[in-house]
Amino acid sequence: MSTPPFLTLPACARSVRLRTARGEFAALHAVPQGRDATATALLVPGFTGSKEDFIALLEPLAEDGLEVVAIDQRGQYETGGPDDVAAYALEELSLDLLAVTAELRERTAARPLHLLAHSFAGYVARDAVLRATGTPLPWSSLTLLSTGPAAVGHGETERAKLLLAALPAMTLEEIWQAMQEMDEAGGAKVRLEQDIAEFLHRRWLANVPAALAAMAQRLISEPDRVDALAKVSLPKLVVSGEQDYAWPVELQAQMALRLSAEHVVVPGAGHSPNAERPAGTAVSLSAFWSNVLA
User: Fold this and answer.
1) Which stretches in the chain have pLDDT values below 70?
2) How far is CA 235 from CA 231, 279, 280, in A?
3) Disulfide-capable partner of 58 in 23, 30, 118, 285 (CB 3.0 to 4.6 Å)?
């Protein structure tokens, strides 16, 4: 999961509820101060994540003239959802994304709309792009952030299988405590500021268990659909950290080649450049989106 570096919203941002044809989605909404936005960026978080994963990007992107909307997907943190695994099938999540896109399109008229998807959300965005109808597409570009062409690597597959086995037998609180103990025993426990640690705990408990199960299963079974995505005429960018525990950076580079997309590696970042190196990530995103506008 991504760990946001702070939780206080910048002056340019606020928490909102985004109403769509498929229900309401919790969102963070940032706008440029003192000028009109030149484009809108829609940011979608990955597995066990939330809109707060992008909180450190809000101000630098708004300063570059972008309106920014970061959402919780169905089943995540403050959006919620039904206790039914079928409700979190990839098709349902991509239809949600299309509904959010349609609502933003209605509000922003002809302004460019850029779609960014982190980790698991890369599957969702890819499916939504392949499912979208009409010409032109509702987005001006697609950015795949720390995601891969298919299922996650072996280590994360094993973790997802452990979670799938635990969900029917344990509460989310019990699973959280077990994960903390595993991290402690493996030397992966990171000491966090109290407010961040409490937020991560609170966010985990707010997940819908059925959503966790559906997403975890998808993470270990997603097929490679890169060739289909490559056929879609849409500017694309692949962004990685220098290291990634979910998909090897080399694999993400190969995916970028297959997509005829630029591959940007953010120095000093891991699986979540958006939270770990937000300044450098924002520069790369703004540069790409500005070129799309040109």
Assistant:
1) 187-189, 293-294
2) 11, 23, 21
3) 30
